[in-house]
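Reopening: structure tokens for the zinc ion complex, inputs below.
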Amino acid sequence: MILTVLGAAAGGGVPQWNCACRNCSLARAGLLPRMTQSSVAVSLDGTEWVVLNASPDIRAQLAASPRFAPSVLRGSPVKAVVVTNADVDHIAGLLSLREGTNFDLWASVETHAVLSADAVFGVMAEGTVIRREVALDIGFGPLPGLVVTPFAVPGKVALFLEETMGTGHRMGGQTVGLEISGNGRRAFYIPGSADVPDWLLTRVEGADLLFFDGTVFDDDEMVREGVGTKTGSRMGHVAIGGPGGTLERFSGSRIGRKILIHINNTNPILRPDSPEREAVLAAGWDVAQDGMEVSL
Ligand code: MLT
Ligand code: MN
Ligand code: ZN
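Re-run output (same inputs, fresh job):
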């Protein structure tokens, strides 16, 4: 199984178009790697791919690697897209996949409802893009030999739905994690989780690979950096550090490889010399980067 990080950043990317925070400024100056928004591609054979989350950067992400070049006049090695929630950074890229090539779009009933309610997603023509509903805890096969099982993780509704649906944490199809199995290997992709409950630790135990929510190191990081008023928790993202944070919660886990992804541009783990990055590496985690590839 091959997993390629198309985009390692949270919504906004690095640098974010309207941000001059420390990391965004360093990236603009060429002193930190630029990062596009949250997406991973998975393949068993390197020729057919499923994309997990369609970020607003998907056109450039697919163009950046020969892996995704069409081998026919019109067509794509991307055979399916799986969406973990209806956040803009995970669905806006669907609008760039509208040029008439067939693929399957897998999402929960909640996420499909958001897409169906918005006429602009009709650019994915019926009959060309097949919208397939996934059920929680039931595996489906987006590619031959690959089984993806979505499961509810603690999360919240998309930002643009908060006014009508509320801001609280909830468990259900609105935010899912993905278990990906194939060739006898087991990987997880969980770019957003508001918490690390015991059952989640049990679920990922013994996996070969875990991509996990690396949005913020400290819950109040965006407030402290002066770029916003929201905490990580308010956005549905558990902090990496601190009590009950990701490092502490996974400290006893046996997982082949642990990689933080969906990293916000305020996060100090992006700076090679930060104590936070040192803490993450010392705890056995890697920090995702665009183009990073893992073969299992
Ligand atoms: C998130 O990950 O919390 C969302 O992408 C935020 C957003 O939609 O801007
Ligand atoms: Mn996001
Ligand atoms: Zn910034």
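The longest helix spans residues 109-116. The pocket of manganese (II) ion (ligand 2) is lined by residues 10-11, 38, 87, 89, 262 (CB under 6 Å). Marking as resolved unless the reporter disagrees.
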